[in-house]
Design goal:
heterodimer, A: 408 residues, alpha/beta, eleven-stranded mixed β-sheet, two-stranded antiparallel ribbon, globular, disordered N terminus, B: 289 residues, mainly alpha, MetI-like fold, 76% helix, flat
């Protein structure tokens, strides 16, 4: 696909679109539905930062790296990186929804705002084909070879690459399944618990076709209830069949609600409204913190695998060499011990192998906790599943049929 | 020259307001209307003319979402007025001014916290283990918690109405407060009973406030997304959530078409209200009494 550069005229008209639609309908500011598995999405549509890179001077100078990410990847403290390189970091929140992210990059002039974008991966095809990203030169990353290599499968490679080139540096890893309250349900080992009559009216699924839709497809395919060639990238008729199944479930009163947003998910289980829920694992951690016995299922159908990745933004005007070097240093720092340990401690997600070593050598972090989390997520990737599809080929059909489910 | 400027001073004074409206309201709305007819490209759209977005709107379930939003909004307006008008009347006519101001402040208090938190708090009241269900079960009125209290159309309407009440109470209170006491005294002197005075004098003179309140509530309810999402249950859709959803797949023409239809609906309703309530007359009554 030819590289396409948005013109100034397009920036103006596209920016006006956002204003127009916002003006057109008061209160239309929902959090969308393309959001996958981050457990704490800033979700503000991503205008972030102060718009200046502040560090595009000549070689040898220092400045500011503009880092746009979802809340999960914000370490909060970047002094370790600043001490090492002299460069400061300005974190700003971006939306994790592919559509919103694309809009902010194309219409919002994101190429002039961010150096690095860090959403859940898998959306580099549209970003790269629009010329918004640079390929990653992995030879410039000292820590690259020491990373987990779970991305080295066909599906995993799809999550970080496009046309054979790597565009994303995976920094946070996880496999999603189902949270449950064992006191109410017993042990859950299948997505089938979401559709089990025994829990009718006490089940919630995420209002998101890239998570709940894909897990349902995995369930139907695994149990030969539907012939689905590829649950992570379904044809229109396959999506229709999956949604028909969900509508049947909904109309029979199986679902208490469809949730969106981390706090909403936690409160649904904490309030006892639901006992089984398709959700993120940090929901379980949060429930346990509240003294509620909650578990995360090991599903026989496999996990919904995903990773957060760092994308290197291709700026309108090329970065100075020192700035480019600092950006690569920052990517490398994301693959090193302190950042990995900090993010694992904050979120409960696996980051990079150095996190465990760093935690063992310093008093800053709980080594046992970090090791447990890493080993737990490694088991998930070894058990396998399907990687989340964030930008399905038939996304129009996904959206249209999901709307049908909402209306049913 | 100076006289010419003086003659045109009223129009010139309006110029900043007109400019603001033009730039931030009329032009964006006109562009939204135009984009609804543009063909899609992969990530954007291009100038042209097609009815594809409108075809999609009418050939999928989005019409049902639109009609549901319309129905919910009308119900919210009616219930908000039924509940809010008596409060506004009581505060405006029956309470001393200092007490009235204190009470009005109480109505504002819930709005100093986030609308999401405010909406979530309904879950603690209406849920299976919420205070209402626990009380009903505790005193034996029901055997088990009522599921329909939460994640239902009932809870959405409750959320919309309670979120709208201050937008009814304040304009109606303002219109009632401006009614000249001598008009009410004259009505009584002429032998009208209190109910007749209310029906023939107070109510007509408060209609500008009712009119404003109706618009506030309708527009708010029509575009609301957080309340249906948090209280509405399995994928409860409104026009607002529908627009957000199509933006997720970068279908800007369809988002613009749905917005245009929504805006057109509001303008038609505004026209109907203005026609039936005789807006000019109401405004002059409200402002000139």
């Amino acid at each position: 696909m030819p590289k396409r550069t948005a013109t100034r005229r397009e920036f103006a008209t596209q920016g006006a679109l956002a204003a127009a639609i916002a003006t057109g309908l008061a209160g239309c500011a929902g959090d969308g539905d393309g959001d996958g598995g981050d457990g704490g999405d800033g979700g503000d549509g991503g205008d972030g930062g102060d718009g200046g890179d502040g560090g595009d001077g000549g070689d040898g100078e220092t400045g500011v790296i503009e880092f746009g990410g979802i809340a999960t990847v914000d370490a909060g403290d970047y002094s370790d990186f600043t001490e090492q390189t002299g460069w400061n970091v300005n974190f700003s929140s971006i939306s994790n929804a592919p559509g919103e992210l694309l809009s902010s990059m194309i219409a919002g002039g994101g190429r002039e705002v961010y150096d690095i974008l860090a959403p859940v991966g898998g959306i580099q095809p549209p970003l790269a084909s629009e010329g918004l990203l640079q390929t990653i030169d992995t030879d410039r990353l000292e820590n690259w070879e020491a990373q987990y290599d779970y991305w080295q499968t066909d599906e995993g490679r799809d999550f970080i690459s496009h046309d054979g080139d790597i565009y994303g540096v995976p920094t946070v890893w996880q496999g999603d399944s189902v949270a449950y309250l064992p006191g109410e349900t017993g042990e859950v080992t299948s997505y089938g618990a979401l559709f089990d009559d025994e829990f009718a009216g006490k089940v919630a699924i995420e209002d998101n076709y890239t998570t709940a839709g894909q897990k349902t497809a995995m369930y139907l395919d695994y149990h030969d209830m539907e012939d689905i060639e590829n649950p992570r990238n379904m044809s229109e008729s396959e999506v229709e069949a999956v949604v028909d199944f969900l509508i049947e479930q909904k109309e029979s009163g199986q679902f208490r609600t469809m949730w969106s947003g981390f706090e909403n998910a936690v409160s649904l289980m904490a309030e006892g409204e639901v006992v089984v829920m398709d959700t993120w694992e940090p929901v379980v951690f949060s429930l346990r913190d509240q003294g509620i016995e909650a578990e995360y299922a090991v599903p026989e159908e496999g996990y919904l695998l995903w990773a957060m990745v760092d994308y290197l933004v291709d700026p309108e005007t090329a970065r100075a060499d020192a700035h480019e070097e600092a950006v690569y240093d920052f990517l490398d720092w994301h693959l090193a011990g302190w950042y990995g340990a900090a993010i694992t401690s904050q979120t409960g997600y696996m980051t990079n192998p150095s996190a465990m070593d760093y935690a063992a050598e310093s008093d800053e972090f709980d080594e046992a906790e970090i090791r447990d989390i890493h080993e737990g997520v490694q088991e998930k990737f070894e058990l396998g599943g399907t990687w989340q599809q964030r930008w399905p080929d038939e996304r129009e059909a996904y959206e249209e049929h999901w709307q049908r489910l909402r209306n049913a | 020259m100076r006289q010419a400027i003086r003659r045109r001073l009223p129009q010139l004074q309006l110029a900043p307001a007109v400019a603001v409206l033009l730039v931030f309201f009329v032009i964006p709305l006109a562009m939204t209307f135009m984009w609804g007819f543009w063909p899609r490209t992969q990530f954007w759209m291009e100038p042209g003319f097609t009815l594809e977005a409108y075809n999609t709107f009418f050939s999928t379930g989005r019409v049902d979402v639109y009609l549901k939003s319309l129905r919910l909004s009308v119900i919210s307006v009616i219930l908000s007025l039924v509940l809010g008008y008596p409060v506004a009347y009581f505060v405006g006519r029956r309470l001393p001014e200092d007490v009235a101001f204190g009470l009005l402040f109480v109505f504002v208090l819930p709005f100093i916290i986030s609308s999401v938190i405010r909406t979530l708090s309904w879950r603690f009241l209406l849920g299976r283990q919420g205070i209402i269900n626990q009380t009903l079960v505790g005193i034996g009125i029901v055997n088990e918690p009522l599921d329909w209290l939460l994640f239902s159309e009932f809870s959405v309407i409750l959320g919309l109405v309670t979120a709208s009440l201050p937008f009814v109470i304040f304009p109606v209170w303002l219109s009632i407060r401006t009614i000249d006491d001598s008009l009410l005294e004259a009505s009584a002197d002429l032998g009208a009973r209190p109910l007749t005075t209310f029906r023939r004098v107070t109510l007509p003179l408060s209609l500008p406030g009712v009119f404003a309140a109706s618009i506030f509530v309708f527009v708010t309810a029509f575009g609301e997304t957080a309340i249906p999402e948090l209280l509405g249950g399995s994928g409860f859709s409104t026009v607002g959530t529908s627009i957000t959803s199509v933006l997720g797949v970068l279908n800007y023409p369809l988002a613009a078409a749905i917005s245009s239809i929504s805006i057109a609906t509001m303008l038609v309703l505004l026209g109907l209200w203005a026609y039936f309530f005789d807006l000019n007359n109401l405004v002059s009554m409200g402002g000139g009494s």
